[in-house]
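> @MW can you paste both from yesterday?
MW: sure, first one:
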Amino acid sequence: MSSSLLSSLTSLKITLPAEFQLLSNSSCSLTGLTCSLSSSTFVVNNIGLTVTNVQITLSNILIPSLSGSSTSFTVKYLYNGQIVAELSSGITLTAYCTSPCQKCSTSPSTCLSCLPAPNTLTLYYAFNSSCLSSCPSATYQQSSSCVSCVSPCLLCSDATTCTSCVSTFIFYSQNSSCINACPSGYYNQSGNCSACVSPCATCTTNTTCLSCSTNYYYNVSCVSAVSCPNGTYPNATAHLCANCSS
């Protein structure tokens, strides 16, 4: 080329393979230059009159598990809008992260974050550095991540709302918490606090009362005043059949 040619009139057009899917935030970059995106083609302006060993980073693109040579890429070098050279083979691809990873660490499939929709595996699970379509048991969704439930929650819907508890705790549904003992008016039924059945005020099972809110306590039941047995009387203050004085 003549030295009268202008670098500002040069450009590089990179057309992606059909199996690559662009996202709303797809971009490309290379040192000192910026790219623009049109359809499935990236354009780098002012690429220079001499182009060798160009390394271009494409980001936020849904790609297949691919690394090596591809004949699907097309790279065109243009001057003033006219094609000067075209390359469609021998292009080396390095997939830094494989789908559905958006960012990765020790390997292409060890995710640090996940690609957004239309990718279906959008939820990041740090426990095994993976991307999931739904959060596994013992975790809850927080934004675009799966976060582990905090003990004593076994299952949860968010950081403070338990839906079940580890074996040494009892689930109390009234405030979605895990507690050591059920409050008054409830009894432990297979790891869940269940309400006593009226007129029981306190109980150990749904049929075993310890005290009564109405009627009168006698022999693990709540009975009417006329049902207090001989030798007892209905004590209205204590709600029980109290023993008569001798």
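MW: second:
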Amino acid sequence: MSDPGTGVTRVAVYLDFDNIVISRYDQLHGRGQFQRDKVRAFDRTDKAADPEIVALTKCFAHNDGIGILPDTIQYLNERAADETNWLAALSTNEINTSLVWGLHDNVSPIRVANFVWQKFLHDKPGRNRYWILPTADHYLQCDAAAQLAHVVRLTAAAEPTALCTLGDRPDGAVLVDQTP
């Protein structure tokens, strides 16, 4: 949609950035490792020398990860309080919107994207698209940067796009659904 005042095309792309810690853990230790390691299940009464706690502490400390935890917690609290209101407001906005999700996201599984699409985006005004990136986890911009950039460019162009797989490749971004 073009801004009437400037003529500039505006684009909204919903990127789910919650739970940075789990994704970073998986990035360092392998896809799905956070769940396999049951990091959430460690007993807080364990001694500081426990190998799981030492490993988790090292993970948090990497690149000053501990320093961002207060901001992450604040972000998650604000998101929990405001996400539904934000999505409800977006659902009435005419701006073209693309929902882009990683198929292998174990932080916010595909069922979350399906819910957001059906409840908030499918029937909103504007040209709206729902994309799945088959090679991506939670951090699309890291896992499938070129595909994400292509989707953003298509959203900004606001031109009709047939249901397709980008590049006609098995690992290409899949346009799952769209509205006129």
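> thanks! DSSP finds seven helices and four strands in the chain.
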